[in-house]
Design a protein that fits this description.
The chain is an all-alpha fold and 189 residues long. The protein has one domain: Up-down Bundle (Four Helix Bundle (Hemerythrin (Met), subunit A)). Helices cover 59% and strands 0% of the residues. The longest helix is centred in the first third of the chain and has 29 residues, at 42-70.
């Protein structure tokens, strides 16, 4: 039973979050202060990421057991990564992809520190890991996520997309906060 990609992607998520938190703490970036009007604070960004993970977990809670009952075709080749739709949109349109309303921050999380917010994401990731216990990479790749924007990814590609999505938001949060600290406008060169 191989779970190389599942384990690798879940580990990469945790490490990526630790690196981001350390960068936030080193730069002393306030968690709940918006760097610009209309741009999310770091705390709001964490909440957005949490809402997405929670949706993914809830969807999988219903769909994974049903998919297993219908019989999974695991003898086919499968993709393990997804294209970076966030970087692609930034290059193509020059701005970030808009968030669907269901993933916009609603003020659910009010933890005062990045470390506590990171724990919330890690807890949700742990729950996804628990869902996938007993699943092989091939089985996870046989199940598709209902996400047309990301190209209907399989579960492995979905995990990879979460990595790309968090990386995208972490990078934007740092850039916005550093630019605002220097007194630069959002679009100043």
């Amino acid at each position: 039973m191989t779970r190389v990609y599942i384990e690798t992607y879940l580990h990469e998520l945790r490490v990526q979050r630790q690196v981001f938190r350390r960068e936030l703490e080193a730069a002393e970036i306030p968690v709940w202060e918006r760097p610009y009007p209309g741009k999310w604070s770091v705390g709001e960004t964490y909440e957005h990421l949490y809402l997405l993970l929670r949706f993914m977990r809830r969807w999988q809670n219903l769909y994974l057991p049903a998919a297993r009952l219908t019989g999974l075709k695991t003898n086919r080749p499968y993709e393990t990564e997804n294209q970076d739709i966030y970087a692609h949109t930034m290059r193509k349109k020059g701005k970030a992809m808009p968030s669907p309303p269901m993933f916009k921050p609603k003020g659910l999380l009010k933890m005062p520190t990045a470390r506590e917010l990171e724990r919330v994401l890690d807890s949700e990731t742990h729950r996804i890991d628990w869902q996938l216990r007993g699943w092989t990479d091939a089985e996870a790749a046989a199940v598709r996520h209902p996400d047309p924007v990301a190209g209907w990814p399989n579960v492995l590609q979905g995990l990879h997309t979460v990595i790309l999505h968090e990386r995208h938001h972490f990078a934007l949060s740092l850039v916005y906060a550093q630019r605002a600290r220097k007194g630069l406008g959002l679009y100043d060169q």
